[in-house]
């Protein structure tokens, strides 16, 4: 699927990457997160939400082989390219970008481990605690962490119901956060 570098296949692969990444970004930028659930609408707050949604996408494709594995890798590469581009837009100088990218990659993979463990164990409390620790470290109590955890479990369930072939073809949908938190496990 993603092996051809030239011709129609390359354009089709770019279209699939753009479609999937566009869905991931749109899911991470839902107004409910920032207005109702008090995720900081800052570059770091947006990184936290994009990281969460990217993790949920990667979690869906985990263990899949063939094209799904390739799609997962291409999307993680796209994510880090986007993060680097965002740093440059924020005015970070060329010498400062690698240092910040290293720090953000470490943050992403640390969150991936914590969130994946909670998802795998269907532990809504652990996921809410990890989200609170990472998304709102500025506050001792963040009540909306339970809403965000419930949403993450709902996304996990809805993505699991979507055929891998559809996802690899660029057809994927995330639920709206405004539809309620849903059941956490």
Automatic annotation (TrEMBL):
- Name of a matching Pfam family: Ubiq_cyt_C_chap
| Transmembrane spans | none
Question: Which InterPro entries would you find in this protein's record?
Answer: Ubiq_cyt_c_chap (IPR021150), Ubiqinol_cyt_c_chaperone_CPB3 (IPR007129), Ubq_cyt-c_CBP3-rel (IPR014569)
Protein origin, superkingdom: Bacteria
Q: Where is the Ubiquinol-cytochrome c chaperone domain?
A: 36-174
UniProt family annotation: Belongs to the UPF0174 family. Belongs to the CBP3 family.
UniProt name for this protein: Ubiquinol-cytochrome C chaperone
- Origin organism is Ollibium composti
Taxonomy-wise, where does this protein's organism fall, top ranks first?
Answer: Bacteria, Pseudomonadati, Pseudomonadota, Alphaproteobacteria, Hyphomicrobiales
